[in-house]
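note to self — DONT lose this again. spent like an hour looking for the file last time. sequence + predicted structure for the chain T wanted, 362 res
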Amino acid sequence: MPFDFSIVTSWLDGLLRHTLGLGNFFTILIECILVGLVVLVAYAMLAIVLIFMERKVCAYFQCRLGPMRVGPWGVFQVFADVLKMLIKEIFFVDKADKLLYAFAPFFVIIASVGTFCFLPWNQGAVILDFNVGVFLLTAVSSIGVIGIFLAGWGSNNKYGVVSAMRGAVQMISYEMSLCLCLITAVALTGTMQISGIVEYQTGPWHWLIFRGHIPAIIAFLVFLVAGNAEANRGPFDLAEAESELTAGYHTEYSGMGFGFYYLAEYLNLFVVSGVAVTVFLGGWAPINIGIEGFDRVMDYIPGFLWFLGKTFAIVWLLMWIKWTYPRLRIDQILKLEWKYLMPLCLLNLVLMTLVVAFGWHF
């Protein structure tokens, strides 16, 4: 089985309490600071990797090379862009609501970092792991809608307001399908705890999409579509339609104000992929097929490598979709959700309930 990271936290707790003689308050404070630093470093590094990956994947599908000049294969181009963004001036727009304008990016980044903390990287390596984890995950992720709407409204820009309204309507709508897909998985696993959902999927062919239940496969596919829309990724990127709305709700932002939205977009892509992997593809659990020799080799691979490999595979799939399909209209986006995905998710939840209640297999 993968290495249990709870051993590391127990060792650190013992070091701070007994060896250094710190009290409960200072022990918890130091542990929270260390965990916060790890989260922020991982957040920043993943954003850099995802931005570089996006550029290379986009170039591949457009028969180009992508960034090639700054560093070997252009690997330092993202670092140059980050440095440029850090030294850019942050200004306020005339006649804007300066309070809303200033606080809007923080709502988006808080929602992004908050949902990022629910991802299980390995056994025992879950930062936020509550017995109602799925409920809290959806609640924290919904904070991002506030940041998007306040950005457009507070900027006093007509294009920003239209973009914010589009983004808010789209995200609120597709949250319904996302939640129903997660509830479908919860009905099968019998737990809302993130670590419990992953533990349920350990064993030969125990990933939810391999359990032989069609409702789980349907929920997984709908989750990918709804998650793509929730992250404002193409072909659902109508809120940032450059040909219509310039840059959308963050048109008037500069420096790290814009940088927060830029980071949140890519990390939301990673979070959506990570949640899909956690709930439907076994999370950090390796693929076991019931053959002892093969399963033993798979168990030697660390759990966090399994999680990252699966997550980046889903990220690549969503990038493929973005650079393949044209942008949808707002009426098409809402019609897809309310006329097709929502009824499908409700019917699928009923089917999963029957599967669990009567032990059906189909």
